[in-house]
């Protein structure tokens, strides 16, 4: 079992840049808390070191399994929970979906629509916001990233990411926004291709449904068209956007709508 207190370590030097890690502008601002659900000790200490070199983020706990992570999350309510994909893709998605259900219960509690008796007073930990989930792994495909995002994850990272990217991800997620590393994309949209606005109304409808994870037959049923017609629309969308594959298309659509922030793998500066 790892120690849950924050320890001081020398910041690693194997980053692509020797520039100091970006700091938060106001040192007086409260630190955002991060809980790590990770099985690799060296990875844990590396994250501790990087966050320990900032003044706006800190590790408050470490656990090795999802059951313990759930218990600590409910008790401590960290701002961010980092989950290792190696713990099992379906298990991680179920954990995130449980987190979303707990968040909905909390919203009902705060709205006064709960089953609490009039004399019951929720404790402080019950009224703090639920943590936001970041999923990372040694590998991460477009399909996996999309499934995690649809389950409710706020951040997607590969473990090969730079320290700057990791900090950018955590800081963006703390603000309630989505963040994903651009290296997850199999293909980047070409700048000489048409923007989303150049799609026909029907193509935009198809793309919206792809973003929600619907398959061709489901899209055809929703729009009242044939599956073969859906394939034709997708072919035109792929040609206009320069993206290949429905998972990349869905992620690109979220990115273009501003729902998903994307960081570059070797980004060396981060405006604060």
Please provide a written account of the structure:
- It is a single chain.
- The chain has 272 residues and is an alpha/beta fold.
- It folds into two domains: 32-187 and 258-263, Rossmann fold (3-Layer(aba) Sandwich), CATH 3.40.50; 196-242, Orthogonal Bundle (Arc Repressor Mutant, subunit A).
- Helices cover 43% and strands 13% of the residues.
- It has a seven-stranded parallel β-sheet, sandwiched between helices.
- α6 links the parallel β5 (155-158) and β6 (178-181).
- α5 packs across α10 and α7 crosses α10 (246-256).
- The model is unreliable at 1-19, 116-124, 189-194 and 266-272 (pLDDT under 50).
What's the arrangement of secondary structure elements?
Blueprint: E1 32-37, H1 41-52, E2 57-63, H2 66-76, E3 80-84, H3 89-110, H4 124-127, E4 132-137, H5 142-151, E5 155-158, H6 163-174, E6 178-181, H7 201-211, H8 216-223, H9 227-241, H10 246-256, E7 260-263
Brief rundown of the structure:
The chain has helices at residues 41-52, 66-76, 89-110, 124-127, 142-151, 163-174, 201-211, 216-223, 227-241, 246-256, and strands at 32-37, 57-63, 80-84, 132-137, 155-158, 178-181, 260-263. It is of the alpha/beta class.
What labels would you give this structure?
disordered N terminus, disordered C terminus, Arc Repressor Mutant, subunit A, seven-stranded parallel beta sheet, single chain, 272 residues, 7 strands, Rossmann fold, globular, alpha/beta
Helical content band:
40-55%
CATH topology of the largest domain: Rossmann fold
Strand content: 5-15%
Can you say what the CATH homologous superfamily of the largest domain is? Response regulator
Strand order of the largest sheet: 2-1-3-4-5-6-7
Radius of gyration: 21 Å
């Amino acid at each position: 079992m790892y120690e849950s207190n924050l320890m001081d370590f020398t910041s690693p030097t194997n980053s692509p840049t020797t520039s100091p890690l970006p700091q938060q502008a106001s040192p007086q601002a409260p630190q955002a808390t991060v809980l790590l659900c990770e099985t690799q000790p060296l990875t844990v200490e590396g994250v501790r070191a990087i966050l320990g070199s900032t003044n706006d983020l800190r590790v408050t706990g470490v656990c090795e399994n999802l059951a313990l992570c759930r218990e600590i999350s409910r008790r401590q309510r960290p701002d961010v929970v980092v989950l290792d994909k190696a713990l099992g893709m379906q298990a991680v998605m179920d954990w995130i979906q449980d987190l979303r259900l707990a968040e909905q219960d909390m919203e009902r509690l705060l709205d006064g629509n709960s089953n609490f008796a009039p004399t019951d007073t929720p404790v402080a930990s019950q009224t703090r916001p639920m943590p936001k989930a970041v999923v990372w792994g040694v590998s991460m495909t477009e399909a996996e990233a999309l499934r995690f995002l649809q389950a409710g994850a706020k951040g997607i990272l590969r473990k090969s990411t730079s320290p700057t990217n990791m900090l950018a991800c955590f800081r963006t997620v703390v603000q309630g926004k989505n963040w994903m590393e651009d290296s997850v994309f199999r293909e980047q949209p070409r700048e000489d291709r048409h923007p989303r606005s150049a799609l026909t109304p029907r193509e935009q409808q198809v793309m919206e449904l792809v973003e929600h994870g619907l398959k061709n037959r489901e899209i055809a049923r929703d729009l009242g068209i044939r599956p073969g017609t859906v394939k034709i629309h997708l072919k035109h969308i792929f040609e206009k956007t320069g993206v290949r594959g429905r998972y990349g298309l869905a992620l690109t659509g979220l990115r273009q709508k501003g729902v998903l922030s994307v960081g570059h793998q070797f980004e060396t500066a981060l405006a604060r």
